[in-house]
Design a protein that fits this description.
Helices cover 63% and strands 0% of the residues. The longest helix is centred in the C-terminal third of the chain and has 24 residues, at 117-140. Helix 1 runs antiparallel to helix 4 (82-103) and helix 2 packs parallel to helix 4. It is mainly alpha-helical.
């Protein structure tokens, strides 16, 4: 069962808003056990950066993969101010969802999955955000719930994506 494109776009904003709620009153320096080497601040900046990265790909209809170095080096984002992080996350999610909506599900651009385009980015970032919201909830000792339809579609997406041959090139450790 795949949720529709519009729902995926909406979930990017919804899951980001819920992540921001997790940050309310939280110590952003708390380590995230499911993302070794990251704290909550770095996790939030990773989500923010990923959404901006995807937005740029969709907005420019990129023909080749842009650099993702900024998504991986989070060493400088260890003690961000919660209000700054929240505002940035809100802007990134809104911009991505809006850009996807303007492009439409059929729009094509560089994508790690052949023919994926805007539909791929909407689905992937809905669930990338939902998953990292779970990481934050775990780190902060908060409860986590996910709508059943969203959870089922997220599992379908991960099984599809995680079994593609290119994934084993990107993450060789997954072969085991």
């Amino acid at each position: 069962m795949t949720l529709g494109f519009d729902r995926h776009c909406a979930e990017i904003v919804t899951q980001t808003s819920l992540l921001i709620e997790h940050l309310d009153g939280a110590d952003l320096a708390v380590p995230v056990p499911t993302c070794p080497g990251w704290n909550v601040s770095q996790l939030a900046r990773h989500v923010d950066g990923g959404q901006r990265w995807a937005r740029d790909i969709v907005a420019t209809r990129a023909s080749e993969p842009p650099s993702d170095v900024a998504l991986r080096d989070l060493s400088g984002a260890t003690d961000d101010d919660r209000e700054v992080v929240a505002a940035s996350l809100t802007q990134a999610a809104t911009a991505l969802a809006s850009t996807l909506g303007e492009a439409g599900a059929a729009a094509q651009m560089w994508c790690p999955v052949a023919g994926g385009g805007a539909a791929f980015y909407a689905r992937r970032f809905a669930y990338e955000t939902a998953l990292h919201r779970a990481d934050a909830a775990l780190a902060l000792g908060l409860s986590y719930t996910l709508d059943k339809d969203v959870a089922v579609d997220a599992l379908d997406e991960w099984m599809e994506l995680g079994s593609l041959p290119f994934h084993f090139e990107v993450h060789p450790w997954m072969r085991e």
